[in-house]
Write a structure and sequence with these properties.
The chain has 290 residues and is an alpha/beta fold. The chain contains eight helices and 13 strands. The strands form three sheets. A seven-stranded mixed sheet has the order 7-6-5-8-9-10-11, sandwiched between helices. A four-stranded antiparallel sheet has the order 2-3-1-4, with helices on one face. Strands 12-13 form a two-stranded antiparallel sheet. Strand 6, helix 4 (134-139) and strand 7 form a beta-alpha-beta unit.
Length: 290
């Protein structure tokens, strides 16, 4: 069957591993005239959990009507296996707010990909503790929110970030070189919904000035890591990483220059995969169905 043109849906879930999970999902789709477009699964034998992502569409009169109908049809299976599940319209664009400080490279890359139709998200706002990126954000037609922060007003400033997300209907926050550590409270509220880019190949060189420390150690590879934010600094589940080769001739400024390109690419891939519901959290790790 290749001629269908109806809406497609994505089911992602994790649950305790058991016999019959795949049969239940695929059996239901077959019974209800569902046609599978793509299916990936993974059994983590260490944790005993099972992960699956299925894209499908209707190919007959028994297929449920609309997203709500699809969700209702799967509800008994989700309850039976106690799945942590999500079903979404494949064409839906999740909404994001981007947080940035003064560096523009990651923000500029995300806005360019989004504005040219190469990143299927909706950017509903940019928040920053500096004014430096107002012009870039507004040039792309994205509302810019200047939210200065200090130890004295951190709680109020983070509340304002959540308010920007709520007013824009944003599900996700991206830290595109936002050089502030989120509080434990905000990290908890955004668990699994906040993506950070760190300018090193974690777990190496956590924290500030990783390029300086990499230069001091004479490393031959530098990298970047996109991960979910948790209350433990730079310890969240890793989504994507990449490295670039360097050598003894490269000073700190050259490492920073090389690293900026890597950071932007790694963050863009992570945002894309999260938006497409390809990333599931597995304890301190992730399962990424690319």
């Amino acid at each position: 069957m290749t001629g269908g043109s109806g809406p497609a849906y994505v089911l992602t879930f994790s649950c305790v591993d058991a016999v019959g999970i795949v049969a239940a999902v695929t059996g239901l789709l077959a019974e209800r005239d569902g046609f599978i477009l793509d299916s990936q699964q993974y059994a983590d034998l260490d944790s005993g959990r099972f992960f699956m992502r299925v894209e499908f569409r209707g190919e007959g009169p028994r297929f449920p009507d609309g997203l709500a109908g699809v969700q209702d049809a799967f509800a008994p299976i989700i309850a039976r296996f106690q799945m942590d599940a999500r079903i979404s319209d494949r064409t839906a664009k999740p909404r994001f707010v981007i947080a940035v400080s003064q560096g523009s490279h990651c923000l500029n890359d995300l806005l360019h990909r989004w504005s040219t139709g190469n990143l299927a998200i909706d950017v509903v706002g940019v928040v920053s503790n500096h004014e430096a990126q107002r012009r870039l954000s507004e040039w792309h037609g994205v509302p810019f929110h200047y939210l200065p922060v200090s130890d004295a007003n951190r709680a109020e400033q983070e509340s304002a970030i959540l308010d920007v997300m709520a007013r824009g209907g944003a599900e996700y926050l991206v830290l595109a070189r936002y050089m502030q550590v989120l509080s434990q409270d905000l990290s908890a509220q955004l668990a699994g919904r906040c993506i950070n880019i760190h300018h090193s190949f974690l777990p190496g060189f956590k924290g500030a000035k990783p390029y300086h420390r990499a230069h001091e150690r004479g490393v031959k590879l530098i990298g970047a890591t996109a991960h979910f934010v948790t209350s433990d600094l730079d310890e969240g589940p890793i989504i994507e990483q990449a490295v670039e080769r360097v050598d003894h001739r490269d000073g700190v400024e050259e490492l920073i220059r090389i690293g900026r390109d890597t950071e932007a690419q790694v963050l863009a891939r992570a945002v894309r995969w999260v938006a497409e519901q390809r990333v599931l959290i597995d304890g301190r790790k992730t399962v990424v169905f690319r």
